[in-house]
Write a structure and sequence with these properties.
Elements: H1 8-63, E1 67-70, E2 76-88, E3 93-110, E4 113-116, E5 119-121, E6 126-128, E7 133-139, E8 142-153, E9 158-168
Antiparallel strand pairs: 1-2, 2-3, 3-4, 4-5, 6-8, 7-8, 8-9
Length: about 180
């Protein structure tokens, strides 16, 4: 007699193969989801870290400081532009302009936060590491600003961003 159907051994074999396939698929999907989350966190960190560095650097370039002073904390500096040479259209000459109040730009790193002109700069979904630094070094008449920003994700991944800027320290020239 010709019986149609599966034997017990065939059914168990099919279930074992199906179990192996489901396990492999679960492993691949889990790996994919975790990798996608890491890429997303890394991308967001790069966007935010590079943005703050570019903002600080652009502001320093626009300011073109001529001097600086330290302020209340160890990582607190005020950069100043006390004068500029500006073109005077009425005289068709470049003239020295001394500002009554210097143009300033304040940077401070304290309590795991960055303050720009006394305003807290906030990172979305990240915190500033206590290892972040802001330092200013002076060598003869040149000033070197170094910023090392380290942001930490909720999963404790660290991302580091560096910025350097330098300018020549200048006194107000005699008019």
């Amino acid at each position: 007699m010709n019986k149609k159907g599966f034997t017990l051994i065939e059914t168990i074999g099919a279930l074992v193969i199906l179990g192996i396939l489901v396990t492999l698929l679960t492993f691949v999907l889990t790996f994919y989801i975790r990798a996608n989350e890491r890429i997303s966190i890394s991308s967001s960190a790069n966007e935010q870290g590079n943005l703050v560095v570019r903002r600080i650097q652009a502001k320093l370039i626009d300011l073109s400081p001529t001097t600086y002073e330290s302020c209340s904390g160890e990582s607190c500096y005020i950069f100043k532009r006390e004068f500029a040479y500006e073109y005077n259209e009425s005289t068709n000459r470049v003239e020295l302009v001394v500002y009554d109040e210097p143009i300033t730009y304040k940077l401070e790193i304290k309590n795991n936060s960055i303050y720009i002109n006394d305003e807290l700069y906030e990172f979305n979904d990240f915190t500033l590491s206590p290892d972040s630094t802001l330092s200013v070094e002076e060598e003869s008449d040149h000033v070197y600003i170094n910023i090392n920003i380290i942001i930490v994700s909720k999963t404790n991944d660290s991302f580091e961003y560096l910025m350097s800027y330098s300018f020549q320290k200048e006194a107000i020239p005699n008019a």
